[in-house]
């Protein structure tokens, strides 16, 4: 049996420059970065040569044609040469077809007072959000087959595309806050105390960016009014400060809160998937996925919005698992067991979290795996 003390070891996880693909997660390597840098240098040289031969200077280029002025995030993705194996921005899971359908609605039973408070707060937030967004999640009536889709939507049994997008956009604009707050506080603590953070900062940043990419994706499907943006501004301002204070004094409770929040997100996206597959949101059944989603999750070019919602739900399941697991650890001494790899979705989709002993075992397995790969690379 692996002792939990291994979680407190500053050398439990040692980062080494090697190619490493674990579970559903692909990690960038030193070689990949060097290759990218070389290609960038060649591309820059080619552009400089072309500009010189044509007698044009940068000052003659119009601002409208500059990549710096393009608002479309997809335009920043290099099309030539072909996309590298790895992640586009920060590390994030890229799922296989069977993984996105392995997600289940599961629940972490509160065991402490702080857990119960966190759970009740999430339920209160969920209730208020449901009221504001008109989301009822009522079971369909017995005579639903006799009712038109429009009637079902008017009576609150199902949501249309615009209603779903209102909900998603508001949810994701708030969900991107906790990871950034946690990363900021841990970053400052690491600087202030002059000690290593043992992998927590990067995982928190990954979560924050992943939630932001959800927002960027859904923003391509709907533009909102100034009132909606003002509502988000107010909610974000209140939530940021409340979460900041909570994480400052009770980081474990804050991670538990996020875990419960992600439980609700998984439940919401599962409901949406069910409605799309039951043809209650026919507009999205075969509607093409935004290009930004295809690039980010490495979806096929013929992917649909349904595929996007599946991928988003898998992300939320990852956050659910990670945050509930982090809440089970000693916040001051334990290393982050997910600093270099995560279980695949067949684990994260069914299991609510790792307890501290399971996290210690997972850290030891990661260390042994790295040592084996390091030996293999040395011998090669």
TrEMBL record:
GO molecular function, one term: metal ion binding
Biased composition (Polar residues): 58-78
Keyword Membrane part of the UniProt annotation: yes
Gene Ontology CC terms: mitochondrial inner membrane; respiratory chain complex
Biased composition (Low complexity): 44-57
PANTHER family: ALTERNATIVE OXIDASE (PTHR31803)
Listed name of the protein: Alternative oxidase
Source organism: Schizophyllum amplum
């Amino acid at each position: 049996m692996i002792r939990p003390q291994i979680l407190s070891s500053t050398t439990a996880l040692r980062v080494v420059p090697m190619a490493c693909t674990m579970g559903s997660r692909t990690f960038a390597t030193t070689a990949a970065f060097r290759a990218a840098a070389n290609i960038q240098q060649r591309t820059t040289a080619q552009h400089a040569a072309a500009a010189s031969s044509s007698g044009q200077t940068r000052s003659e280029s119009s601002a409208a044609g500059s990549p710096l002025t393009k608002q479309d995030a997809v335009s920043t993705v290099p099309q030539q040469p072909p996309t590298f194996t790895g992640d586009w921005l920060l590390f994030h899971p890229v799922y296989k077809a069977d993984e996105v359908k392995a997600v289940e609605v599961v629940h972490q039973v509160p065991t402490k007072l702080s857990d119960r408070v966190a759970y009740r707060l999430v339920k209160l937030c969920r209730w208020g959000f449901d009221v504001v967004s008109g989301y009822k999640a009522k079971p369909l009536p017995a005579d639903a087959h006799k009712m038109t889709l429009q009637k079902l939507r008017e009576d609150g049994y199902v949501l249309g595309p615009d209603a779903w997008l209102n909900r998603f956009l508001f949810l994701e604009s708030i969900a991107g806050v906790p990871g950034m707050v946690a990363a900021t506080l841990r970053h400052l603590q690491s600087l202030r105390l002059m000690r290593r953070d043992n992998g927590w900062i990067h995982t928190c940043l990954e979560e924050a960016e992943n939630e932001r990419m959800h927002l960027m994706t859904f923003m391509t499907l709907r533009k909102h009014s100034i009132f909606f943006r003002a509502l988000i501004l107010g909610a974000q301002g209140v939530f940021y400060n409340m979460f900041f204070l909570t994480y400052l004094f009770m980081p474990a409770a804050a991670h538990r809160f996020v875990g419960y929040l992600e439980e609700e997100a998984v439940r919401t996206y599962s409901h949406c998937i069910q409605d799309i597959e039951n043809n209650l949101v026919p507009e999205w059944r075969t509607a093409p996925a935004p290009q930004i989603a295809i690039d980010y999750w490495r979806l096929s070019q013929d992917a649909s919005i349904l595929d996007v919602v599946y991928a988003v739900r898998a992300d939320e399941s990852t956050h659910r698992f990670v945050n509930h697991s982090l809440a089970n650890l000693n916040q001051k001494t334990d290393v982050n067991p997910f600093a270099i790899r995560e279980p695949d979705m067949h684990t994260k989709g069914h299991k609510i979290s790792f307890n501290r002993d399971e996290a210690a075992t997972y850290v030891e397995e990661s260390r042994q795996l790295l040592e084996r790969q390091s030996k293999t690379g040395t011998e090669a």
